[in-house]
Design brief:
Length: about 400
């Protein structure tokens, strides 16, 4: 109420006196307030909302004063109706105290409070690496997980192979012991802060690829090589992570030139003095590994061979000259073959000659011959003719 001068007439007849004292102020009423949202998380701003405005009996304009406290501790730095979410933490009790101000005094205080709840964790994309795995690889799952409350998260990984669950654990890896080539693998992730759980979030599947085989070395099947040898190229130390059966692509070289891709190599492809080697490339039917080359072997001279030998005549007398009949002589290298006979009478050597003179034996003696062939470079194994007994 505005003051008005009050004129008073004194009984004494003096001039009137004017009273300029202000009229008394009437304080505004209390508003009604709530904090929104009623069940906030740490991701929510807190806002004091007036459900009912205060009124002022004098009609004065009203402003509002806000005081915030957290867990009974006043926050003097917060005087706006809104508290940013960044100021809050899970479990805190926030209280707002509001009073109306008409410029000359504060009305009654009213309060409202809320408790900040837990915020669930979040999970970004779940990825598997490597993107093109083999059975030799260990699959590693990664994901971007967050908890706005900074709670410690428990991550649970559930692994699937061809749709079948194989593991549920806190480990984010899976080894080839749990999968084979051509199988499809994926993982699901859940994250828990102890109060709330996020997920599951599923990764994109990966398909396990074939692992190329390997071999430590290649070697020739024969340590001494002759024209008549049939060679094979043998692998040493076959390795295949997928357990595929052993298989090879074979390449033969003679004197550095490719001659065959057959599993075996015969003397039709090489001659005495040639250098023979092979290259093996491991092959599991899907992929080929790194090749391995054998050491080269030099083709040696092939000793000549004799067929059956016999003494002629077959029933000699003390008057007969003895000779040797050679049924067949051969040499794998095609060299001309000569032979020589060493004669034995009663097991004692009597010389080397084509024939044996009757002067060298008498009736009743037992005679045999040992024949050795030569190709001019090497002698073959001696062949012994069946002994004969000299008749009178």
């Amino acid at each position: 109420m505005s003051p008005w001068p009050l004129a008073l007439a004194a009984c004494t007849g003096k001039a009137p006196v004017t009273d300029t004292s202000p009229a008394p102020n009437h304080l505004p009423s209390a508003p009604a307030v709530v904090v929104y949202p009623p069940a906030p998380s740490t991701q929510d701003d807190l806002e004091a909302i007036l459900e009912a405005e205060a009124s002022d009996p004098d009609g004065d304009p009203i402003a509002y004063r806000y005081r915030w406290s957290v867990d009974e501790v006043e926050r003097f730095d917060l005087s706006a109706p809104v508290v940013p979410a960044a100021e809050t933490a899970s479990g805190q009790l926030w209280r707002v105290t509001v009073s109306a101000d008409d410029g000359r005094g504060l009305g009654p205080e009213v309060r409202a409070e809320v408790r900040v709840g837990n915020s669930a964790p979040t999970i970004g994309a779940v990825d598997l690496s490597p993107a093109a795995p083999t059975e030799a690889d260990t699959l590693v799952a990664t994901a971007d997980t967050q908890d706005i409350d900074d709670d410690t998260l428990t991550l649970t990984w559930t692994w699937f192979v061809d749709g079948a669950l194989v593991w549920t654990s806190t480990r984010n890896t899976l080894t080839g012991a749990d999968f084979d080539k051509h199988q499809e693998v994926w993982v699901e992730l859940t994250a828990s802060d102890g109060l709330a759980t996020a997920g599951p979030v599923v990764s994109a599947p990966v398909t396990i690829l074939n692992t190329p085989p390997a071999v430590d070395a290649a070697q020739l099947s024969a340590s001494a090589l002759f024209e008549g040898t049939t060679l094979r190229c043998e692998g040493v130390g076959w390795q295949d992570v997928d357990g595929d059966p052993e298989g090879y692509d074979v390449r033969w070289t003679v004197n550095g030139a490719a001659v065959s891709a057959e599993p075996e190599l015969t003397g039709a492809r090489f001659d005495r003095g040639d250098a023979v080697s092979c290259t093996l490339t491991p092959d599991d039917g899907e992929d080929m590994g790194d090749p391995a080359e054998s050491d080269a072997a030099i083709v040696l001279n092939s000793p000549p061979r004799l067929g059956g030998v016999s003494i002629q005549p077959a029933a000699p007398t003390a008057r007969d000259t003895l000779s040797v009949l050679v049924a067949a002589a051969s040499d794998d290298d095609g060299d001309p073959v000569t032979w020589a006979a060493e004669w034995f009478v009663n097991a004692g050597s009597v010389g080397v000659s084509e024939t044996l003179d009757p002067a060298m034996f008498t009736a009743g003696d037992r005679v045999h011959a040992q024949v050795t062939a030569s190709d001019g470079l090497t002698t073959g194994l001696p062949v012994t003719a069946t002994p004969v007994t000299i008749a009178p």
